């Protein structure tokens, strides 16, 4: 099951990865993104993930239009104004694994594993393959395509798919959330987007965007109104 809460202005979403993609799940993720957009700076959106499907994460009701809405919901989540933290509480796969790759900071329980959507015959051809290739390299994507093997927590950390391997009840998790909260907000979102676009943007195009962000930061440090105009080069 999935559940969303926004107690104390801190969005929190629980996802059961054993359940298939559905219109209801898309709505749930969009509601979480809404809560993240409504939250102020210093707030962290938390995703709590567990569960592995027995096959591909789709149901009979799913059409390519549903998949398109799902991919757009994930993309939206990647661009919300606050930071998001995914906490993998147990073995995680399917839609939960896709959400993991769309979050900012990833924490995985010791002994758990990460399994991307696949059957014994093939891998799900959604944008999860794109994110896996972008974030962990061609070798990880090839392994997913050819073998469909899970990624144990320590291996996932070594590949950069997760940042920390910690028990969700460990006090260090709360410490990490508090640390992320100090940076969470629109300024973080600007820098996140610059980093995300780096691999697909030519230097000359990126330069103007980075200079614009630097100009904004200099104005902010001087307590001036940040410029809405891009820096001219």
UniProtKB/TrEMBL annotation:
InterPro entries: ClpP/crotonase-like_dom_sf, Enoyl-CoA_hydra/iso, Enoyl-CoA_hydratase-like. This is Enoyl-CoA hydratase/isomerase. GO terms for molecular function: catalytic activity. It comes from Nocardiopsis dassonvillei (strain ATCC 23218 / DSM 43111 / CIP 107115 / JCM 7437 / KCTC 9190 / NBRC 14626 / NCTC 10488 / NRRL B-5397 / IMRU 509) (Actinomadura dassonvillei). It comes from the Bacteria. It holds the Pfam family ECH_1. CDD domains: crotonase-like.
């Amino acid at each position: 099951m999935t559940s969303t809460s926004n107690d104390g202005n801190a969005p929190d979403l629980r996802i059961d990865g054993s359940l298939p993609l559905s219109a209801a799940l898309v709505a749930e993720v969009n509601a979480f993104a809404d809560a993240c957009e409504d939250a102020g700076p210093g707030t962290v959106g938390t995703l709590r993930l567990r569960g592995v499907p027995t096959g591909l994460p789709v149901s009979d009701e799913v059409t390519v239009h549903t998949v398109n809405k799902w991919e757009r919901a994930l993309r939206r989540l990647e661009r919300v104004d606050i930071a998001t933290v995914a906490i993998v509480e147990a073995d995680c796969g399917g839609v939960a694994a896709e959400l993991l790759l769309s979050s900012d900071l990833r924490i995985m329980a010791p002994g758990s594993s990460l399994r991307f959507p696949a059957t014994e015959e093939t891998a799900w051809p959604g944008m999860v393959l794109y994110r896996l290739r972008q974030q962990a390299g061609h070798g990880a994507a090839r392994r997913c395509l050819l073998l469909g093997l899970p990624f144990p927590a320590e291996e996932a950390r070594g590949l950069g798919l997760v940042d920390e391997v910690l028990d969700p009840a460990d006090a260090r998790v709360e410490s990490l959330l508090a640390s992320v909260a100090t940076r969470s907000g629109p300024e973080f979102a600007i820098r996140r987007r610059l980093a995300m676009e780096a691999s697909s943007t030519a230097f000359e195009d990126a330069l103007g965007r980075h200079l614009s962000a630097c100009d904004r930061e200099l104005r902010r440090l001087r307590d001036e109104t940040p410029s809405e105009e891009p820096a001219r080069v």
